[in-house]
Specification:
- GO terms for molecular function: ABC-type oligopeptide transporter activity; ATP binding; ATP hydrolysis activity.
- One of its GO terms (cellular component) is plasma membrane.
- Its main location: membrane.
- Belongs to the ABC transporter superfamily. Siderophore-Fe(3+) uptake transporter (SIUT) (TC 3.A.1.21) family.
- The protein is of the alpha/beta class and 325 residues long.
- It is 41% helix and 18% strand.
- A hairpin with a 2-residue loop joins strand 9 and strand 10.
- The longest helix has 31 residues.
- It is globular.
- The termini are far apart.
- The structure holds adenosine-5'-triphosphate.
- Adenosine-5'-triphosphate (ATP) binds next to helix 3.
Length: 325
Amino acid sequence: LTRLYGPLTALSNVRVDVMSALVSFDRVFEVLDLKPGIEEKPDAVAIPPGSGRLEFRDVHFRYPSADEVSLATLEDVVALDRTENAPVLRGVDFVVEPGQMVALVGPSGAGKSTTSMLVSRVYDVTEGAVRVGGVDVRDATLESLRDTIGVVTQDSHLFHETIAENLRYARPEATEEDMWEALRGAQVAELVRSLPEGLDTVVGERGYRFSGGEKQRIAIARLLLKHPSIVILDEATAHLDSESEAAVQRALTVALEGRTALVIAHRLSTVRDADQILVLDDGRIVERGKHSELVAAGGLYAELYRTQFAVGDSPALPYAEETEQ
Ligand code: ATP
């Protein structure tokens, strides 16, 4: 029994390590907008500059199991567990035309975050293709993919460096004027200007500690500096007070203007403004359309709308009142 349980216990620890390694990858990736370590094909092609078209073609995905994450020294342990992870996406197919905003909604675990991560190659599809500007992301040069895609998540990460250095990850050649412009767009210039050391203020644990909403706005300033034509946004704003949330919202409005956007939507105003809403359930798109059409259809969206979007959203909620009658 010990021979059996010993390795299994070791294995579960391995899984934890692999998972936390992936989590920290995600954090760095958020700054660079691409996962470090992904490889470019020798014959990679550049995505045409300014491309705003995003396509998912019959995308299937399951997370790599521990034995597929190459850990040579742990091979024997890992070999004990060959159970594959279940498919997470099963035939996801949609197009976001240049300049459109598409909202992804669905119950927890439906596959929204997974879908968003396939665009910037945090993971690659198991089957099917994700194309940006007509180019399969796996065939694109990393530089062109990094230039085209910008990511803003709910958990924005800033390095323990100066504000200027944090911003320059987005555009190394940015001038101070560029940075101030981006900070203004992101609704955080006044705050930075009020700090004695301005752009040279060191941020983080042992430096100036931004609040969650301020960090998010610095992340948005980074996005504005980078000028990506496609933005992937997870708009959860759960930890923000309403004043901070309003500022983040204004910053995001600036950031999304004129850009293609794929948004994991949590706000009523987003789903109502979306050119198209995709309703994911258990890895499949089960409904698609505009807010009013989907509410009228009375399916899963209508239910999500009643339970998620019409509850706790601060702006005027005429639809919420209607549904409560
Ligand atoms: P939420 O609204 O709760 O954030 P979501 O719709 O974004 O959910 P995903 O995070 O994409 O859903 O997760 C889809 C499925 O994939 C879930 O069943 C989840 O448990 C699984 N999953 C997520 N990350 C991993 C991982 N690293 N390894 C294995 N399975 C994972």
